[in-house]
Design a protein that fits this description.
By secondary structure, this protein is mainly beta. The protein has one helix and nine strands; from the N terminus they run αβββββββββ. The strands form two sheets. Strands 1, 3, 6, 7 and 9 form a five-stranded mixed sheet that branches. The chain has a four-stranded antiparallel sheet with strand order 2-8-4-5, with no helix packed on it.
Amino acid sequence: MRFFLAAFFIAAAAGAFGNPFKSKIISSNDSVVEITVPGDHFMKITNFTQDGGTDRAVVEVVLPGDTENGGSTNVLTAARIDFSTGANAQNSPEISNRVTIAGPAIVKIKPIVGAKLFITYKKERDEGSGGGGGGGGASPTVIPIFSPTPGVTPTPTSNPFISPTPF
C-alpha cells in the first residue's frame, strides 16, 4: 500500500511539473498550422527555425475583431539553420528571437516549399493581470515581523587605549 501511495504522489508531481513546452515540425507538404490562444492566456515562442527553402517562414498573428490593422501581422521570422545558396544565403548562424503573444489571438504558420520548420512554444494562463495599471488583480500581502526582544540602541564608547599615530 505504501508503494502505491508513493507512486501516486510521484506521478502527480510529474504531471503537475511536467514540461509545458510543445514542439512541432512543419514540412512543406503540411497544411497551415493554427494555434488558438484564448483571451485569458498567452503564448511564448522560444524557438522558430527553418532548414531549407528559399522563402522565409513567419509567425503570423490574427487578432479577432481587429479590422483597422488588416486583422493580422507577422511577429517573428524563422532563424535559418542551413547555409543554402541564393538570395537567403547565410555566412553565419542566425540568432533565434523569442516572442510572447497575448490572447485572444490565432497564431498561423504557413509551410514553406522545400523547407522544414521547427517551433517550440507553450501556452500559459494569465494569472497575474494586475501588474502596474491598477486594473485589479493581486495586492501585496503584508508579512509582520516579530522580534522576541525589543531593539537596543547602541551607545558609543571611548577607547581607553591610545595608539600612536604615524607621522
